[in-house]
């Protein structure tokens, strides 16, 4: 994949085919020069045309989240067994509001695409 230079993806997600595209592959990684997250989607249209879309920084996260439901399996998941319970690979943040005894708390979780999550921080409002 490419950003400031060419580099190897950290992980590759294989996506389900849809009506228009097949052999859909989403590569993710961190640019070794500017350390921004980079996501690159490559897919083949039914007529053989190759479609590429890449995004970096916060837009890479958006691209990843928009394709989250279409992930079939990832290269890492395929290569290693799922023995970990802590989030790994591409981790994203989720904030949850919780009410207890007239107080409200925000619980911040780190989540991954394998269903693992970990509480990072609890802050009261
Ligand atoms: Zn870069």
Physical arrangement of strands within the biggest beta sheet:
4-3-2-1-5
> What hetero molecules are bound to the protein chains?
zinc ion
Give the termini separation: 42 Å
Strand-and-helix sequence, N→C? Answer: EEEEHEHEEE
What is the general shape? elongated
Strand residue percentage: over 45%
Structural class: mainly beta
Largest sheet: 5 strands, antiparallel
Overall pLDDT: 86
The number of helical segments is: 2
Tell how many strands the DSSP assignment holds.
Answer: 8
Radius of gyration over all CA atoms, rounded? 17 Å
Number of domains: 2
Low-confidence stretches: none
Helicity, in percent?
Answer: 10-25%
Give a written overview of the molecule:
This protein has 125 residues and is mainly beta. The protein folds into two domains: 11-79; 92-124, no CATH class. 11% of the residues lie in helices and 49% in strands. It contains two helices and eight strands. The strands form two sheets. The protein has a five-stranded antiparallel beta sheet. It has a three-stranded antiparallel beta sheet with strand order 6-7-8, with no helix packed on it. It is elongated, with a radius of gyration of 17 Å. The N and C termini lie far apart (42 Å). Zinc ion is lined by residues 3-4, 31, 33-34, 36.
């Amino acid at each position: 994949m490419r950003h400031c230079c060419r580099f190897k993806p950290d992980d590759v997600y294989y996506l389900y085919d849809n009506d228009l595209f097949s052999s859909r592959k989403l590569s993710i990684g961190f640019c070794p020069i500017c350390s921004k997250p980079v996501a690159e989607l490559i897919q083949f249209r039914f007529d053989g045309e190759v479609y590429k879309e890449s995004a970096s920084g916060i837009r890479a996260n958006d691209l990843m989240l928009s394709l989250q439901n279409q992930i079939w399996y990832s290269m890492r998941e395929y290569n290693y067994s799922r023995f970990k319970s802590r989030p790994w690979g591409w981790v994203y943040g989720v904030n949850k509001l919780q009410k207890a005894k007239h107080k409200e708390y925000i619980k911040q979780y780190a989540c991954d695409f394998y269903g693992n999550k970990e509480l990072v921080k609890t802050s009261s409002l």
